[in-house]
Design goal:
Length: 367
Amino acid sequence: MTDVHDTHSDPHGGELAVAEPIPDPGLPDHQWRPTDVDPAKEKRAERQVAALFGLSAVSTVAFLVAYFTLDIGDNWHVIGGFGASTMALGLFLGLALLFIGVGIIHWARKLMADHEIVELRHPAKSSDEDREVAVQALNDGIAESGIGRRPLIRNSLLGAVGLLGLPAVVLLRDLGPLPGRKLYHTIWGSGTPNAPMRIVRDGIWTPILASDLEIGDLVNCQPDALHNPERYDIDPTEVEGVNLQIHKSKASLILLRMNPGDIKPGKDANGDSRANWTVNGIVAYSKICTHVGCPISLNERTTHHLLCPCHQSTFDLADSGKVVFGPAGRPLPQLPITVDDEGYLVAQSDFDEPVGPSFWERDYYER
């Protein structure tokens, strides 16, 4: 062995000195904290931690009060021009989280065990013995934290953290009202025998003659009521702004013409044949994928398959819109169509099932 004081030759000339090994510094003597040796200070620290958790709970309650009492449109403002509602909600929710964080830090610094430990590195997968030691160390840590013998801290922490779930619950209210049965109906059902709902081209709003479509043609469509509400005795304000976007999102339609002999008519919700739902090989389906609601229009002409670009769900438009590939769990809803006295394509009725993504209350029947 080479002595640590030996020297080695430098390839470029001269000598290189070998450094002295670093001595093991060891661990310094443990310094006891005032709360470790003085029961009175320990008790005071415990009350301080509980008080911080209590302040967090108070801040959460203040958040809830501000949410229900301050309107977004309040005319009075606070510093910086921020609205009272926005400032109050942000302030109290921030304080609720801050007090919990400060309380946990204070608990760790003043009351939890602070002995330094040294452990050797080990492979990524621990042995069974090491796992047992780790579980024991975890149990020891729980015991040393004092959570079992400090009910004041434990209960105040549980109360503060538990109350923090309430802001998340009340904020769900801002997502808007529950849809109820709105997903089961679209504006396609607003047509009448005297004015059946015409199918028009999306964007240009022109009606479609069945005779104008050739085999292989695919057309993106919307109901005529979105452009001519008076024709169907619909209040124009019902198809403006947000309402217009809602109607379009539910009523978006795809027309495809194929050889009539390729169509396999399925059954509707009542078990009746869909043979009269098409016009000379023209079929109509919802444009909204039944997986997560992406708009679809990628047509494979030779197979009559419609592909969703989001997750590759594939539907067979010649066979009642059934899923032939991908994560979608339900066929595309089909719209029954016919022609009016002028030869324009119209809807016979609304969809007989909800459009859009699947949801747990949605009924499904084999077709």
